[in-house]
Specification:
This protein is mostly beta strands. Helices cover 10% and strands 30% of the residues. The protein has a single domain, classed as UDP N-Acetylglucosamine Acyltransferase, domain 1, CATH 2.160.10.10.
Amino acid sequence: MCLVYLVIVEWTWGIEIPWTTEVGSRLRIFHGTGIVVNGGAKLGNDVTLHQGVCIGARSSEGGSPIIGNGVHLGAGSMILGAISVGDNGRIGAGAVVLADVPPGKAAVGNPARIL
């Protein structure tokens, strides 16, 4: 079964979400190519991922992000380290988020700033 998952999801569609990742209900993936999620990450309900999103640790010893409910991650955005993105947060395309994003706020830019 693991090989089937690896071939279909990772190789064919380019989406890497390990089985150890905690994923809430109704995860939406648009244009899924190039999505990478760390096995220790937690994704809430109603999260939306666009192409090229990376959710991961900043180092091998670092923690993984926690993504709240209703969060929208734009194309090419990166959420890195032991940080959290609050419920209903918005991450702009190409943003590199290295610090917490409060609930209901947007983060844009590289490095990301809160709007």
